[in-house]
Amino acid sequence: MAPLRFDVISLFPQAFEALASLGVIGRAFAAGIVSLKIHNPRDYVSDAYRKVDDEPYGGGAGMVLKPEPVFFAFESIPIHGRRRVLMMTPQGKPLDQCDLRRWSLDYDQLVLLCGHYEGFDERIRSLVDEEISLGDFVLTGGELPAMVVINGVVRLLPGTVGSQESLLEESHTDLLLEHPHYTRPAEFRGMKVPDVLRSGNHLEVAKWREKQRQLRTRDRRPDLYERWFDKQRRQS
Known about the structure:
The chain is an alpha/beta fold. It folds into two domains: 4-154, Alpha/beta knot, CATH 3.40.1280.10; 170-235, tRNA(m1g37)methyltransferase, domain 2 (Trp Operon Repressor, Chain A), CATH 1.10.1270.20. The protein is built from seven helices and nine strands, in the order E-H-E-E-E-H-E-H-E-E-H-H-E-E-H-H. The chain has a five-stranded parallel beta sheet with strand order 2-1-6-5-7, sandwiched between helices. The chain has a two-stranded antiparallel sheet with strand order 3-4. A two-stranded antiparallel sheet has the order 8-9. Strand 5 (83-94), helix 3 (97-106) and strand 6 form a beta-alpha-beta unit. The radius of gyration is 22 Å and the shape is elongated. The two termini are 39 Å apart. The model has no long low-confidence stretch (mean pLDDT 92).
């Protein structure tokens, strides 16, 4: 199977150097499960200052990323099978686990656009399939969100993590948060591992874990719990 290819358009290619050495993500790159290419818009301008930004029409603070360098960088990227173009922007849809899983399953290539300065020239959005945000806050650029997307997608690819089963039980896979985990010793500073986990009764352990997932989600993320509850009600 051909590796999933990431192409990142960024003014700061060095920001992505650590990805190739980060635990299981780094091993996925080394094993050829995934590949990463960085494209710097500054390489596609001809003036001596490698200028990629300019003042906004209509006035205002900050500088805006010009369309030409981004378009030229984008157009230099070869298409590899099923491709999806993502823009990292605080105006985008909040990222969730379903997005990461969909991209890991449905596409052979993900192109990530990282903004800087005051933002993108609006015409750059014509290149994009989806706009993605990490949440209701603003960062200095799109590199960190892009690395989050890469990390989140790569860990879902077959061969990246040791156990695919662990991916099915973790937080947000089906809206619920993950259940509590315990390991040895059975008691530490008066805090004991629940008896059911030491019982050897796998059916009771599964019931306990499912109940804990529901309770933890209800208490910590009532918004997710409401969505999960509505889904259960529709399916019943």
